[in-house]
Amino acid sequence: VVAFSSGNHAQAVAGAAKHFGVPAVIVMPADAPRFKIEATKSHGAEIVLYDRIKDDREAIGRAISEERGLTLVKPFDDPDIIAGQGTVGLEIAEEVEKLDAALICTSGGGLTAGCAIALKARFPHCAVYGVEPAEHDDFARSLKAGARVKNAPGVRSICDALMSEQVGEYPFALAKAHDIQAVSVSDDEVRAAMRFAAMELKLVVEPGGAVGLAALMAGRIAAQGKRIGVVLSGGNVDAEMMREVLP
Amino acid sequence: VVAFSSGNHAQAVAGAAKHFGVPAVIVMPADAPRFKIEATKSHGAEIVLYDRIKDDREAIGRAISEERGLTLVKPFDDPDIIAGQGTVGLEIAEEVEKLDAALICTSGGGLTAGCAIALKARFPHCAVYGVEPAEHDDFARSLKAGARVKNAPGVRSICDALMSEQVGEYPFALAKAHDIQAVSVSDDEVRAAMRFAAMELKLVVEPGGAVGLAALMAGRIAAQGKRIGVVLSGGNVDAEMMREVLP
To answer: Which of A203, A239, A247 sits opposite B204 (nearest CB)?
Structure first.
């Protein structure tokens, strides 16, 4: 298999490939956190680095797939991947009796779209929010425009896991079909959420995985008296950043 | 209610008292981590501090109980508390099909004894280990001596939650009846376990809660090919210590 990803999907594909005994090539941005690259390598995957600004990771992935006869496993713009990521929403739906809203980290939108399908099936009135970094709010702008728009190239946020160029085609169609809304959070709000997660929830969450909690804590949606589901997805944070966010 | 505890039992009793709307007085060591005292206060409890070396916390608790007509809730030497703490073992027993051994943080021994009852009922051949700081190994010495012995006063370890003077009467009787064994770990082994918990398991665990994982990582018991249950209990760690244990 071959996959492109900044880290979490990379490790998931590499781990699954190892489990099933098939070779894996992972295309990762050269500026991805070092330990994400190392973690992916540790699963036995071959790593191909690319330049986030200049290169087209999808083209690189497709070329490797064709040259070497490997199956391309996209990180979000694929119905099977969306269904797999949606099992997070299924787990939430199975555990609670009632849900008024859900806050889900959004970049390519696969996790958000998959969770929305699962949650809306059980709780038709549940509001589903895709949460993205404020500097990287293509999802909000796409919903407003009625068509997918891109993020400015080179824009950065501490949420390295949420840096895809734009929301995927399938996720965007599902977002419109399931009435997903968008909210955004600042890097400082994300840091505050990571701090709260570590000190109060006792969980180590990476920036991109903490945006939902950040949106809740920053009062981005009306929460009083409501039951809100928050997805905390991704714990690939290095020690330096953990030290920085601790009180 | 009135209770004496260095932190975790203190917060549990204070939280339960708040929930049921009854007043709580918590007797805590003056050198308990500041944030444990603050967390207990935040549940609305009245705090009475004592000197860990000079004072007898049980006598203080009993005196307050008699003077003010409050029920004394002991941290471990009480059959009801042991049964409550044993629900941790019940949860493990319900979740797995097979268990060869369990590693449980031990100080007064209530959690260990309660878990042993639950685990041995389902898995009669499961080995249950109480894990304690090496400098504070009264449980191991008590088992060896066949009678409860005390720790030297003033002995310290980073495991502030495991500093009781000796194993309780009920827990010790149960340890003998259920064939509980003892292993111990050094402070450095505990730090390594906290680091692993944060970076790999994505969990913030306090020193006293990490001793079971430390024992497993240090090879204190034969683990190869076995299914081992490890209780990670307590996340009351301050930011300074977290910074210290991070890689």
So the answer is: A203
Of the candidates A54, A201, A123, A6, the one whose C-alpha atom is nearest the C-alpha of residue B202 is: A201
Burial of residue B54, with CB atoms counted within 10 A of its CB: 0-12 exposed, 13-18 middle, 19 or more buried: exposed
Subunit contact B203:A205, Cβ cutoff 8 A: no
Is any Cβ of chain A less than 8 angstroms from the Cβ of B34?
no
Name the minimum distance, in Å, from the CA of A15 to any CA of chain B.
15
Comparing alpha-carbon positions, the chain B residue that sits nearest to A247 is B239
End-to-end CA distance of chain A: 42
Q: What pairing do the DSSP bridges indicate for beta strands A127-133 and A101-105? A: parallel
Whether B203 and A203 lie within 8 Å, measured CB to CB: yes
Q: Which residues of A touch B243 (CB under 8 A)?
A: 243, 246
From the list B199, B235, B246, the residue facing A202 with the nearest CB is B235
Task: Extract the residue ranges of chain B whose pLDDT is less than 70.
Answer: none
Complex ipTM, two decimals?
0.89
- Cα–Cα distance between A221 and A211 in angstroms, integer? 13
Of A199, A202, A239, the CB nearest to B246: A239
Question: What digits encode the pLDDT tens for the residues A66-121?
Answer: 999 999 999 999 999 999 999 999 999 999 999 999 999 999 999 999 999 999 99
Distance in angstroms between the alpha carbons of the first and the last residue of chain B:
42
pLDDT number for residue B233? 93
Runs of H (alpha helix) within chain A: 8-20, 34-42, 57-68, 79-85, 87-95, 110-122, 138-145, 169-177, 187-196, 211-217, 239-245
Structure confidence at residue A132 (pLDDT): 97
Q: Can you tell me the distance from the alpha carbon of B119 to that of B61, in angstroms, rounded to the nearest whole number? A: 32
What is the pTM assigned to this prediction? 0.91
Cβ atoms B109, B172 nearer than 8 A: yes
Q: What CA–CA distance (Å, rounded) separates B185 from B213? A: 10
Residue spans of chain A under pLDDT 50: none
Give the Cα separation of A183 and A133 in Å (integer): 9
Provide DSSP, B143-159. HHHTS--PPPTT---S-
Q: What is the pLDDT of residue A73?
A: 95
Asked if B235's CB is within 8 angstroms of A247's CB, the reply is no
Per-residue CA distances from B124 to B119, B121, B166, B171, B181 (Å): 7, 6, 27, 19, 14
What is the predicted pLDDT for the residue at A141? 97
Q: Would you call B241 an interface residue with chain A, using a CB distance cutoff of 8 Å?
A: no
Q: Using a CB–CB cutoff of 8 Å, tell me whether B239 touches chain A.
A: yes
- Tell me if A242 and B242 make a contact (CB, 8 A cut-off): yes
